[in-house]
Amino acid sequence: QLELELLRKEEKLLETDFVLEQVCRLTERAWGRARDGERDTLLLAKTTSELQKKIKDKTRKMMALVAELSMKQALAIKLQQEVRDREQFLVTVSSRVDQGLPIPQDTEREWLKVLRNEEVQKAAAEARARVGFCRAAFASGCPCCSALLCLRPNAYVPGAERGLPLPRPYGALAPFKPSAPGSNMRHIRKPVVKPIEI
């Protein structure tokens, strides 16, 4: 009887081992599928986040372009209005000239201002060209330009006590050479010199 019970127990043990093997195999398969699913979901999440980022960038760029376009449209409308106003003004001025009437004073003032600005710009351009020419000539060593420019002294000739009077450089303690007084000096009062009483 003990042997029969032992045989039954062994059979049950074998059955449970077999069931355990089957369950282990099935769980391994399920774990593999779950891992594959996790990998797939991770890849899907990455691609969706990248796509969302691209969509946000594109919408931001689109909004910037729309804003820029609206600004350009507003500027175009303003310029068109200005052109229309100028054309209307030109028509009125030409009709006044045809009738022998004088041009409005505001228009004449503006025209004189434009002419003055053109003259000032032309004079400034000529002065810049002259300065550039003088600098280039001085850099090339032209004697006529070097005579016109007053250079700052960087050396002095000592007293001829011994030998030749050769110029010596000042070094760090060069003499101060003041520049010409500016136009704002007329607003500054000269100091009143007080007499010294001894």
UniProtKB/TrEMBL annotation:
GO cellular-component terms in the record? cytoskeleton
Question: What keywords is this UniProt entry annotated with?
Answer: Coiled coil
Q: Which domain of life is it from?
A: Eukaryota
Its name, as the record gives it, is CC146 protein
Q: Which organism is it from?
A: Nothocercus nigrocapillus
Q: Which gene specifies this protein's sequence?
A: Ccdc146
